[in-house]
Here is the input.
Amino acid sequence: MSEEKLKVIQAKAFKPKATDSNDTTAAPNLLASVKPEECAAAKIIIGDITYIRLRGGKFC
Here is the structure.
């Protein structure tokens, strides 16, 4: 590529936001009020959000 003086053009990665349309947090952080001494194994379970791309490039 350098011999042919070619350069890579890479689009910016899409970063989904976890906010609603009013730029406020969609879900409050409920774990912020939990005291560490109250935590035990299998007492707090946390999951991940999966974003699904829809037609037109939007995410669900």
